[in-house]
Amino acid sequence: RRVHGELTLERATSMSGKEITSDTVRDMLRQGKDPKDLLISHCDPECKHWKDKLQRCEAFLKSLSSSDPEKSCMYPMRDYVTCVEACVQPKIFKHLRGNESGLFS
Prior knowledge:
This protein is mainly α.
């Protein structure tokens, strides 16, 4: 299920096959564990366009490796990371202490 272009956590499954719910994130935070890696694997498919663009850039750079050392994939990397972070952060932030009212989520 998608809401406003974001993946929801109602009954999502991570790449490892483990079911991820909003309760999973809340429980991990209560246990002092960081749910970010789990959520990154959950959000990665949503950012496929940006990841593909980054991989194309990296493949292109390999072919140019000796001709222009100044070239980089900084902008495609930034776009991919921004996409993943935009998916992950709200799912974590809404469970942090001080945000019980949902004011900031």
